[in-house]
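hiii, so i know i said id send this last week but things got crazy w the move. better late than never?? heres the sequnce for the chain we talked about at the cafe, plus the structure i predicted for it. fair warning i was half asleep when i ran it
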Amino acid sequence: MSTVLSRLTTLLVAACLLLTGQALIRPDKAGAAEAGYLMTHFIGEGAAGQQIYFSHSADGLHWSDLNGGGTTLRSTVGTRGVRDPSLVRSPDGGKYWIIATDLCIGCGQSWGDSTSNGSRNLVVWESTDLVTWSQPWLLNVAGAIPDGRNAWAPEAIWDPETKDYVLYWATNATLNGVLKHRIYYARTADFRTINTPQLYIDRPGTQGIIDTQIIEAPAGTGTYRYVRASGDGQITLEGSNSILGTWTTIGNLSGLGLTGSQVEGPMWMRFRDRDEWALYLDQYATGRGYMPVLTSNPSASGAYRLPASGSYAMGGTKKRHGAILNLTAAEESRVLSRWAGGPVNRLQSYNYQDRYIRHTNFDVRVDPNVSPAQDAQFRLRPGLAGSGTVSFESANFPGYYLRQDGADFQLVHNDGTAAFAAEATFRRVAGLADSTWSSFQSYNHPDRYLRHFGFQLKLDPITTATGRGDATFKVVQ
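okay and structure toks below
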């Protein structure tokens, strides 16, 4: 994390816009070397591991976990778990989307369930700054596919010919008497509606295909304008000069000892300071997460090579099937400021010292023996409104804050409005019952303080000794 934070002091103010809308494009060289890379990924099974995580790298090879290694977005729709996120930037740099598989293995679903009767939806978030994200929504992409049984591993790329996005994903369906995963695609302008899905990639016989990711290679770097890597028993490389045109097989990575039985989830990244690419592969068979394979020519299978021992580091959490965005300096500054780590704390009651502020079903109260423990954990962020203030962000529901609603409190998603900011902001002052503890004064109702009453969290004027005790808390690990 120290590497991540140190970059904050060296970022340039000027930003360069991307020339296309795909997630993996290289910005103009002017100022590009000063900015790094953002990876979005999940980390493993279970409800906590199958959420959205962010990691940052200054050089594309050494990664640091953002948000203290915790989730940055959490799905509250569908299966309430997500895998395989893709990160998409609009051509003008004004919007971003994260698109993910609606899947939560080990938290209500098995692999058999999800393969034969899984979610036909994708989960989508939208942002204008990579910092404040919308609530997630479900996009049904496989419901119109005959016998479509799921929707996995979504990706999207901007098509300059039609000025919209080609959204593609894997669905298990029966076609010509064969049930297997194939890649389907649809067009979309906003990731809220799509046209009728069409078959995109099919392999011969019973061979399925699940993971594929396309990059646009700048002119002069290879034979083809577009190159895709797919998990289909091998890590197969193909090239084309049109996203929906004819694709030619380039080869695979079996010569490096990397086949579909060892690795999956190919994820491209172009180094911004040299003509070289990394193709990250998820080592799922050994449970080790991503590793990079390097090449100076994505169109030549013989040009790929394994990295030297010790030349890369993936950070504290396991990185699994995701996407990488080459950041502009302005984007990097925002991302690192918002998703820097910071301690995870609890707020202990002064007069009921076995109880802590916690959320439960988005209501807020003080309880003993909180389970799961993360429901009582918060990050004290710089206040969303005003200087010298604090806001309380949930550790396990990032983007959700303690917000007063009249005299009551709830855990609410930050909608980015000034009203939300004011209602979720407090001044930390000396404890009203004990000056060595803390009390929290409302930013927009300065005559009121955060306190518990009947073990519910409230916002009230404090006029009695009991009230002063109720409004006093200790910030603890």
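btw The longest strand covers residues 164-175. thought thatd interest u
miss u guys!!
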